[in-house]
Write a structure and sequence with these properties.
Elements: H1 5-34, H2 45-95, H3 100-122, H4 124-127, H5 132-147, E1 152-159, E2 162-169, H6 173-179, H7 183-189, E3 194-196, H8 209-212, E4 222-231, E5 236-245, H9 254-298, H10 305-319, H11 324-336, H12 346-349, H13 357-363, H14 366-375, H15 384-388, H16 410-424, H17 436-445, H18 453-464
Helix pairs in contact: 1-2, 3-5, 3-9, 5-9, 10-11, 10-16, 10-18, 11-16, 16-17
């Protein structure tokens, strides 16, 4: 706490008063005990010292108390101001409400809208897995639940400079498409997310009288509309209209507009996420390509092997109906499963004769070292476990940890059989490639020992169907 000059003066005064009071108390005590008053500075040093300290402490206490009191007054003043604002807002709400029931209904309705909006924001990461069209229609579904009041609605995207309609509720979609509205023209009419009125225009009001005749049976002129601008930071993507006809007793409010603007922010977040993912994917591809190039330069016999394992593994994953995210992880694991072989002497990797025990132990280090390397790369550590265990065996006789059956991660079980199959059907330093028939027989003979059954069966099925060479 910083003390002002005034506080320091108060402390000094407190020290003096405390010292005087304790001296007087000490003199009185001596008078009672000795029957005389003793005037000697030396005799009152201790009372002066403790009196000064006591005075200082009391002064500091009251200064702090006064400061707290001032803070409380300020807080009370702020609270009073807030209460006045709340009371003013409450009075304003009450003045615009016909009855308490109407007000409660309106508040509950608004609350439900915001709950739905907040829920949508919370689930934005799940929405990112949707295609652009699916995402736009998802937000449209949310928007129409929140808005609730409309006689017609349109959802469109900009394709080849023209509007592509995905929803045309209350309109003749064929007539709309024949009208061929350009994106630039609509953008000039509706430059931003806002509420628009007939004098400003609507989709139907943009048409000539002749064009409008085809809509007469199912549409009336627009009373007002609310427009949601779908855009990324770089350009306009599309839009969503909700329109009220001229005979409608409803209208759009500032709350409706605020919610539509919030939904626009969700779109911007979605497209920003797409851009960031593209940047990350490009960076990831560059990293992986550099690693593979380094491995192939170090071990020319594995040139193309990593890519083959990645393709085989992804095909197996597709046959198992894995998600797009799982397939991407599987593909990356295939590309990088042998990356740590760059730490092994190239003479040992390319040795044509059988390996000694020590040499094989050295080779067995590569899954663990590869996993440790990938664990330090943020975008690749998701595949660390699959790389570490791709040489484990179903019977527990693999390495590095001797895992069995389902203890082995699914992707590692897939990579294991894909790796073995590609190794068998390609030339190696120590032998020529096996025929496809011999490779299949080798895998069949080692199901439930070296290879886990589900992964092996999937690979054999793909080979039999001719999907894999």
């Amino acid at each position: 706490m910083i003390y002002s000059k005034k506080d320091i003066i108060h402390i000094i005064i407190g020290i003096i008063i405390g010292a005087i009071l304790l001296v007087l108390l000490s003199a009185f005590q001596k008078f009672i005990l000795l029957g005389q008053v003793i005037f000697s500075l030396k005799g009152y040093i201790i009372p002066i010292f403790f009196g000064g300290i006591t005075g200082a402490i009391i002064s500091l206490f009251f200064i702090r108390l006064l400061a707290l009191n001032n803070e409380i007054k300020k807080e009370n003043q702020v609270l009073n101001e807030r209460n006045e604002e709340i009371e003013s807002l409450y009075n304003e709400l009450e003045a615009h409400s016909q009855t308490i029931d109407t007000l409660n209904h309106s508040l509950n309705n608004t609350l439900n809208k915001y709950v739905l909006l907040i829920d949508s924001v919370m689930n934005i990461n799940n929405f990112r897995n949707l295609s652009e069209k699916e995402f736009i229609l998802k937000i449209y579904t949310i928007a129409k639940k929140i808005i609730g009041k409309y006689d017609s609605a349109i959802v469109y995207t900009c394709q080849n400079d023209f509007l592509k309609y995905h929803v045309a509720y209350g309109y003749d979609q064929n007539a709309l498409e024949n009208f061929q509205l350009t994106c630039d023209f609509v953008e000039k009419q509706y430059p931003r997310t806002d509420i628009y009125y007939p004098n400003q225009s609507s989709i139907m009001n943009l048409m000539s009288e002749e064009k409008r005749l085809s809509f007469k049976k199912i549409n009336q002129n627009s009373k007002e509309l609310i427009f949601l601008n779908i855009c990324s930071k770089k350009n306009k993507v599309g839009g969503i209209f909700f329109e009220l006809n001229v005979n409608s007793q409803k209208s759009y409010s500032k709350n409706d507009l605020a919610i539509m603007k919030a939904l626009q922010s969700i779109f911007e977040n979605y497209y920003e996420g797409i851009e960031l993912n593209k940047i990350r994917e490009k960076q990831l591809i560059n990293i992986v390509e550099a690693m593979i190039t380094m491995l192939e330069f170090h071990d020319p016999y594995t040139k193309g092997h990593s890519l083959s394992v990645a393709k085989i593994s992804k095909s197996m994953g597709e046959a198992m109906n894995l998600s797009e995210e799982d397939l991407n992880e599987l593909y990356l694991t295939g590309l990088l499963h042998d990356i740590a072989k760059t730490f092994i002497d190239s003479d040992l990797l390319n040795k044509k004769g059988p390996l000694t025990y020590k040499e094989f132990e050295k080779i067995k280090e590569h899954p663990g070292k590869g996993a440790d390397l990938l664990a330090n790369i943020e975008t690749l550590k998701v595949i660390e476990e699959s790389v570490r265990y791709h040489h484990e065996r179903c019977d527990g006789k693999g390495y590095p940890d001797g895992l069995k059956k389902n203890e082995i991660p699914r992707n590692a079980r897939i990579i294991c059989v894909a790796d073995a199959y590609d190794a068998m059907v390609t030339d190696r330093p120590y032998r020529k490639a096996l025929s496809k028939t011999k490779a299949i027989k080798e895998i069949q003979n080692n199901i439930d020992t070296q290879f886990c059954k589900q992964a092996a069966d999937i690979l054999l099925e793909l080979v039999e169907k001719g999907i894999l060479d």
